[in-house]
Design brief:
2 domains, disordered N terminus, flat, alpha+beta, 19% strand
Length: 102
């Protein structure tokens, strides 16, 4: 029984290795394709701007969430619509474009 269990585990390991190799090949091809999306004007994302606030620590998730909820509350209190923007993400920069003045 122990010998057959060992054979099964070897077979499974061989299968996983084959799948890992296929995944690496796919990842390499798709990474080359993915990188091309960020060339030139970049990859566009539609978004809504709720506000801007400088944070002392930008890596703390709680501080970021608190700031976001505070900015959302300000927009709701004013009764204004959020500003529609387009974010163009490139390998070297992030461009923010106002949809109204495009």
């Amino acid at each position: 029984t122990v010998a057959s269990g060992t054979k099964m585990s070897n077979t499974v390991d061989a299968t996983l290795t084959t799948k890992e190799e296929e995944a690496k090949k796919t990842t390499t091809t798709s990474n080359g394709f993915r990188a091309k999306k960020f060339e030139g004007d970049g990859f566009p994302f539609k978004a809504k701007l709720i506000g801007v606030e400088d944070l002392s620590i930008d890596r703390d998730e709680k501080i970021c969430f608190d700031s976001m909820f505070k900015l959302k509350a300000v927009v709701r209190a004013r009764g204004e619509h959020k500003q529609r923007i387009e974010l163009n993400l490139t390998m070297s920069a992030l461009k923010v474009i106002d949809d109204a003045t495009k």
